[in-house]
Amino acid sequence: MSVLVVGSVAFDTIRTPFGVATEVVGGSANYFSVAASFFTDVRLVAVVGEDFPDQHLEFLRSRGVDLRGLQRVPGKTFRWVGEYGFDFNEAKTLDTQLNVFADFAPKIPEDYRESEVVFLANIDPDLQRDVLRQVRRPALVAADTMNYWIARKPEALRQTLTMVDALIINDAETRQLANEQSLVRAARTIQAWGPRILIIKRGEYGALLCVDDEWFSAPALPLESVQDPTGAGDCFAGGAVGYLTSRMRFDAGHLRQAMIMGSVMASFNVEAFSLDRLRTLTRAEIEARFTAFRRLVHFDDLAERSGDSR
Amino acid sequence: MSVLVVGSVAFDTIRTPFGVATEVVGGSANYFSVAASFFTDVRLVAVVGEDFPDQHLEFLRSRGVDLRGLQRVPGKTFRWVGEYGFDFNEAKTLDTQLNVFADFAPKIPEDYRESEVVFLANIDPDLQRDVLRQVRRPALVAADTMNYWIARKPEALRQTLTMVDALIINDAETRQLANEQSLVRAARTIQAWGPRILIIKRGEYGALLCVDDEWFSAPALPLESVQDPTGAGDCFAGGAVGYLTSRMRFDAGHLRQAMIMGSVMASFNVEAFSLDRLRTLTRAEIEARFTAFRRLVHFDDLAERSGDSR
Fold first, then answer.
1. pTM metric for this prediction
2. pLDDT of residue B308
3. How far is it, in rounded angstroms, from Cα B293 to Cα B289?
4. Considering only CA atoms, which of A9, A14, A36, A37 is closest in space to residue A25?
5. Are B184 and A301 inside 8 Å of each other by CB?
6. How many CB atoms lie within 10 A of CB B133?
7. Does the beta-carbon distance from B39 to A310 stay under 8 Å?
8. Interface probe with B: pick from A271, A299, A308, most Cβ of B within 10 Å
9. Phi-psi region of A196 (alpha: psi -120 to 50; beta: other; left: phi over 0)
10. Which end of chain A has fewer CB atoms at under 10 Å, N or C?
């Protein structure tokens, strides 16, 4: 089974209170691809400039990521400069240079059109629809978006949502999109526009799943040291959607497991700058951390611990 | 078994985007007592003025709260005026009138000195130690505090912490108290000062427990409508500490259940202004919501849902 991802591959420069990383590889589709590659075949559609290092492309290939959809064009690769204060839940964008990404028109290779699952990373909702017009009946379409598109292209985004099964956004964006403070009511509003599945990311607080009218809360693992939260959301999506693609079951039970697998991948990714932690990650480490998440939320039913009560 | 609580009983005036409540009954010890009364006997030490309504005292008595430690003195009851914006995680204090609370010197009735469990609500850490000097070897001492005391009386607070088993504070206060961004490292620092058990409240995001070096994450229930978050933290403490008092077991397994019982009581309390939701609450509703929390965090082990993986 294969997941097709369309989004950005970029150079990031990141400042945190604990260090600086200059022009390291990043981008939503890049993070997604590496995280998802631990679970399934990944097909990447993105664009880079002539300055993008072969070394990273070789790393992606070594992870089984199919790069036939990665365009390399004259010019410079997309660059983002961001800063985090002590609150790692929100990045402050200091500079964005779209470069070759400014003219990105996703072209889906013929061999990719039968992909069972599609993930539309955070790009222009018009481009997201362009992608969906080029594929044939995927079993699951998942999409990300952001406050920028919610504010600037609400109608285009609404059109895209009619074609999306699972929307993966953060809690502030959920409220902004639905214009509703209550997440429960916001979820109902957004679901009425199309996505049966809503996944709400909450940074260090974990994530919520709403499927039909059933809710699931995924915790975040308390970590001794967070180096760099960049890409956590895309690694979450990669883990979750990659896991679902490996199972090809989209019921609430599998979605709950996928939420945890997304949380597992995000929890690893924030332990180092860029994608560095994922470079050495093993399947055994992933499974051990999945088990750690089970332990983190476990509590006994009331009947299981006896004692008097009124 | 009995829990002794020492703290404030007050009149609150609360403004939210959805309504205003004027001079409704509140106060940390008041919220705590009502929540804990669903699980165990409660002994309340606090002070009110002549203006405090008998009707509310009768309600407390009807819930089995022992009021022999409640002083009624000449003057006006403590008043707090607060406001919430759309972010219900933080109240903005508009006015505080300490009134009779300014001279509060907790005097523990002789009959209360053998209380098995003590909860020190958010009062001056010097008063918290005064209380502990008046009681005889409780099995568990739990305490709350706030940024005001962390900033103004750090040494007094540190002395109090040497006598506390369980500290219940919010995440910003945890970081402030330990002067440490990482909650994992902050917990270790605070535990080294005394409390074996650290409970970190995170508002709409739930709560974390750290006992020795074991972590537990309690979710918050996604609610259709939150009317008034005032007292949620004290209802959480009342549910958690009240439950522990009913069991008189303080191992990690019972603490995990107590975290959920605290979350259950907080989730009910925010559904109405003041203590109104707790007035009609039943044991059956509490147990049903405990079960809803189990469902909210449940996910299967990887082995339980088959499929290929790499």
1. 0.95
2. 42
3. 6
4. A9
5. no
6. 8
7. yes
8. A299
9. alpha
10. C
